[in-house]
């Protein structure tokens, strides 16, 4: 075997080394840029924490519709058995009610997460009393108002508006797939968005969500 190195072999070796060197330079350059480039919104942590890309404040699991969703007529009952509808309450057409945002929490006494949310919802209702947000609990217990009223009274709930739908028809009409589920309605009774499942309803994320929709 010959030990001589030809000119062509030397040339190929030099070319390969150039490619390796160029690759190292590129990697080092990218690393340097990443090291000294400030991440987006780093200068305004409040913006990155409180706002999503479309300007609405984020709340885990809350789904906002691209446009408010028109709901079918949702007939329910007041605690005294008088009939009403969610649209009438949300739009201010129900006597003694005012229009604004309406948060409707579907629940039942047999639902443990629902029961856990009640003090939080009650605190939220107290916080937004007179500020254009109404918080309603809508029980779907088959027994109607008596069982729900007893539970809420024993819990010491005083700020929530209470509605009942023992027929479960309104729940089916809005496409409920489980409890608890909470709808946010605008002043026309249209659904802005919903959250399926449990949430901390007296949290900063909820306050930001409601404040944003009050202002926009």
Walk me through the topology.
Blueprint: H1 7-36, H2 45-50, E1 62-69, E2 75-78, E3 83-85, H3 86-91, E4 101-107, H4 112-127, E5 133-139, H5 145-155, E6 161-164, H6 169-173, E7 181-185, E8 191-196, H7 204-215
Parallel strand pairs: 4-5, 5-6
Antiparallel strand pairs: 1-8, 2-3, 2-6, 4-7, 7-8
Task: Describe what you observe in this structure.
The chain has about 220 residues and is an alpha+beta fold. The protein folds into 2 domains: about 1-35; about 50-215, Glutaredoxin (3-Layer(aba) Sandwich). The chain is built from 7 helices and 8 strands. The chain has helices at about 5-35, 45-50, 85-90, 110-125, 145-155, 170-175, 205-215; strands at about 60-70, 75-80, 85, 100-105, 135-140, 160-165, 180-185, 190-195. It has an 8-stranded mixed beta sheet with strand order 1-8-7-4-5-6-2-3. β7 and β8 (about 190-195) form a beta hairpin. The protein is globular and about 85 Å long. The model is unreliable at about 25-55 (pLDDT under 50).
């Amino acid at each position: 075997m010959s030990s001589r190195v030809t000119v062509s072999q030397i040339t190929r070796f030099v070319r390969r080394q150039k490619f390796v060197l160029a690759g190292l330079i590129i990697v080092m350059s990218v690393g340097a840029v990443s090291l000294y480039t400030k991440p987006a919104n780093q200068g305004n942590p409040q913006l990155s924490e409180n706002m999503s890309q479309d300007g609405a404040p984020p709340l885990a699991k809350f789904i906002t519709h691209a446009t408010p969703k028109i709901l079918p007529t949702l007939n329910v009952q007041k605690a005294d058995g008088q009939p009403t509808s969610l649209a009438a309450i949300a739009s201010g057409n129900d006597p003694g009610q005012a229009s604004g945002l309406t948060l409707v929490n579907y629940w039942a006494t047999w639902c443990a997460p629902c029961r856990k949310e009640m003090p939080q919802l009650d605190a939220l209702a107290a916080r937004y009393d007179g500020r254009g947000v109404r918080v309603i609990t809508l029980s779907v217990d088959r027994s109607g108002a008596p069982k729900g009223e007893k539970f809420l009274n024993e819990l010491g709930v005083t700020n929530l508006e209470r509605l009942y739908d023992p027929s479960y028809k309104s729940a089916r009409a809005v496409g409920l797939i489980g409890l608890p589920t909470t709808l946010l309605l605008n002043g026309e009774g249209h659904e802005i968005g919903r959250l399926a499942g449990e949430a901390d309803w007296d949290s900063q994320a909820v306050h930001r969500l409601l404040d944003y929709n009050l202002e926009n």
